[in-house]
Design brief:
Blueprint: H1 19-25, H2 52-59, H3 74-87, E1 91-95, H4 98-107, E2 115-119, H5 124-136, E3 140-144, H6 150-156, E4 161-167, H7 179-189, E5 193-196, H8 201-204, E6 214-218, E7 232-236, H9 250-253, H10 264-268, H11 272-285, H12 291-301, H13 304-323, E8 328-332, H14 342-348, E9 356-361, H15 364-374, E10 379-380, E11 390-393, H16 404-409, E12 416-420, H17 426-441, H18 445-454
Parallel strand pairs: 2-3, 2-4, 4-5, 5-6, 10-11
Antiparallel strand pairs: 1-7, 6-7, 8-9, 9-12, 11-12
Length: 460
């Protein structure tokens, strides 16, 4: 169903604008009714029609406009336009959460009897969705152990494989996916590549530029930035030729619905996938984003680049400091020169490597418990991408349902902790970590900070 979109400031010259200019202006225009420069919150379940004919034409898609917020809403549409512009996509669909974005995005592609091929190194909630829920829907899934080995993907491709899935920066270990290598294999197989770009954000990398077909986000994280609202987004690149693969995707390119004259590819062309996913998946399953949450997300997006710069700088400083501590067995941050993904990080994420990563304490779960109980600035909680710094023990929380062998395969040891480094002042973050490590070992926090200063790493 087509939604009315006012001409947004900056939309015609998006390619000539800097990212920060676009994150403020793209997709928005002064409100037509009262001239409000900020997109108002349209808290309305439905929208009135002028007459009988207008109602018919809007439901048939013959006239732009809004009908019901489950199908579209002016506040939500402004966020969708902005995120499509920032990711370099053709169209975006906002939904109620990041998990909804992953579900809806893939159900816009997959159906019973299809096969999904996913990197193993992804958010555990997504793995559970694929392994358990999709299996009940008759969708098969295999996980690629080495996601940066093109042949590992090729070996698992089946005749019924219909999509690849991965994360640009996997959670929680800050590994970097070789987007171009994986997208090349997806192209060979004639299937779309869906990338979760939550931890990188479009400021650090735009997967569509490296061959991704669809990009998803948990907008609750860095896009919103303040931990105040749930939301998710699906961005359609508009670059996959669904019509060429009509046998694989008959719901998009096959025979038209009996009540319609054209297929989705015939009617909507490059954005057939977005049109189908919005009208036949998101609107029917109903994970609608609240207009109020859309407003909060839009406010957050306007400062995205400024926050992510600070997030990444703080994370690199914290990772370097942790790497030098005797209680720390390993640090999984691709910004470190010692990290196996450092070369890929410089290639795909030259602006910074994000701020979510893990590190492992040599003392195991007991050391992790003492550490978590000792922090004051870092908040123990199950969230990411907040302006506040957060910490979580993966093995007993987000990955608690994995067996010991599965934890080992995922690189999660008993002493592994996940950090989401915020935008606080670096000296305060180091002091808090030093306090926590002192609780682990009994060493002086002041001595640790003194050594840090002598090493030449600025705390200001």
């Amino acid at each position: 169903m087509t939604q009315h979109a006012p001409t947004p400031i900056g939309s015609s010259d998006q390619d000539r604008q800097g990212f920060t200019t676009a994150q403020v202006h793209a997709g928005q225009a002064p409100d037509a009714s009262y001239g409000s420069r900020i997109t108002p919150i349209h808290l309305s379940a439905g929208f009135a029609f002028d007459d009988f004919d207008q109602a018919r034409d809007r439901f048939n898609g013959d006239e732009d406009g809004y009908t019901y917020t489950r199908y579209g809403n002016p506040t939500i549409a402004a966020v969708e336009r902005k995120l499509a512009a920032l990711e370099g996509g053709a169209e975006a669909i906002a939904v109620g959460s990041g998990q909804a974005a992953v579900s809806v995005a893939l159900l816009g592609i997959l159906s019973v009897g299809d096969h999904l091929l996913s990197a193993r190194s992804i958010y555990e909630g997504s793995r559970g969705l694929f392994r358990d829920n999709f299996a009940r829907m008759g969708i098969e899934v295999d996980f690629v152990d080495d996601a940066n080995d093109p042949d590992a993907w090729r070996r698992l491709i089946r005749p019924n494989t219909r999509a690849f899935f991965g994360e640009s920066i996997p959670n929680p270990r800050n590994e970097i996916l070789d987007l171009s290598a994986v997208s090349a294999v997806a192209d060979e197989a004639g299937v779309p590549l869906v990338i979760d770009n939550t931890l990188a954000t479009p400021y650090l990398v735009r997967p569509i530029e490296h061959g991704a077909t669809v990009v998803v986000h948990s907008a609750s994280k860095f896009l919103g930035g303040h931990g105040s609202a749930l939301g998710g987004v699906i961005v359609d690149s508009g670059r996959f030729d669904w019509a060429t693969h009509a046998e694989s995707f008959p719901h998009l390119a096959g025979p038209a619905h009996p009540l319609r004259k054209q297929s989705y590819t015939e009617r909507f062309g490059a954005v057939a996938y977005a049109a189908y996913t919005r009208s036949a998946v998101a609107s029917r399953l109903g994970p609608t984003l609240s207009p109020f949450n859309a407003f909060l997300l839009q406010q957050g997006i306007e400062t995205l680049s400024l926050r992510v710069q600070r997030h990444s700088a703080n994370a690199l400083a914290v990772a370097r400091w942790l790497e030098a501590q005797p209680e720390v067995e390993s640090v999984d941050y691709s910004g470190l020169e010692s990290n196996r993904y450092h070369e890929l990080a410089l290639r795909y994420l030259p602006r910074g490597q994000g701020s979510v990563f893990s590190f492992t304490l040599a003392g195991g779960v007991d050391a992790a418990e003492r550490f978590v109980n000792a922090v004051r600035l870092f908040t123990p909680m199950s969230h990411l991408g907040d302006v506040r710094s957060l910490v979580l023990h993966a093995a007993t929380t987000s990955h608690a349902n994995l067996t010991p062998d599965e934890l080992l395969a995922a690189g999660i040891a008993p002493g592994t902790l996940r950090l989401s480094v915020g935008i606080e002042d670096e000296p305060d973050l180091i002091r808090d970590l030093a306090r926590a490590l002192a609780a682990v070992s009994g060493a002086s926090p002041a001595a640790r900070i003194h050594d840090h200063l002598l090493a030449g790493t600025a705390l200001g």
